[in-house]
Amino acid sequence: MINKKVASVSDALKDIQDGQTIMLGGFGLCGIPENSIAELVKLEVTDLTCISNNAGVDDFGLGLLLQKRQIKKMISSYVGENAEFERQMLSGELDVELTPQGTLAEKCRAAQAGIPAFFTPAGFGTEVAEGKEAREFNGKMHIMEEAYKADFAIVKAWKGDEAGNLIFKGTARNFNSCMAGAANITVAEVEELVPAGSLDPNQIHIPGIMVQRIFQGEKFEKRIEQRTTRKRD
């Protein structure tokens, strides 16, 4: 069995270069590859195109890369809670491609499955459809969306084995599951890394064939983006 384990996040991301396109899993601050994002900041790579549901918050997640002006273009479904993201977008400093959330997920999944394009009704008749082929199916208009082409997909999983098999936990599965295997190289950051054969095959969400590198992260903060509580009786 092929061993995909690398010693550290530095080894996992050592060949990322300026100007590349990177998918990053997560939703808000849930299930984001914290160690990998910190390493990208440390590497000081620039002119990146990042495909992610959103850009975290100002001082955490992809917000750290925005602060350092390392991102040239964001492909996301919404601005979210990141004021710096909003500021850079409105000022024209950052190229932003806003995409319907389901379309963004499917463009990742299509790349994962080797499907070059698909038709969806989402966005027809809006700016999203500009310059795209449109066809009618069952009396309803659809636009053609092409699968993403990315150099790296960086995902975060709860548990993985040395062969690259991954298990996600709860809602942290989000975009991580459709981004794994959707780029030339997939890097998996996991909370717990176990020997190959240790995981129950029935519990595996992503098979190791979709992962090229895996490492065990450390010191996960797992911040909460919006904490809502109720008063005790």
UniProtKB/TrEMBL annotation:
NCBIfam families: pcaI_scoA_fam. Gene3D superfamilies: Glutaconate Coenzyme A-transferase. GO terms for molecular function: succinyl-CoA:3-oxo-acid CoA-transferase activity. Pfam families: CoA_trans. This is CoA transferase subunit A. It comes from Flavobacterium macacae. The keyword Transferase applies. Transmembrane segments: none annotated. The keyword Secreted does not apply. Keywords: Transferase. It comes from the Bacteria. InterPro entries: 3-oxoacid_CoA-transf_A, CoA_trans_fam_I, CoA_transf_BS, NagB/RpiA_transferase-like.
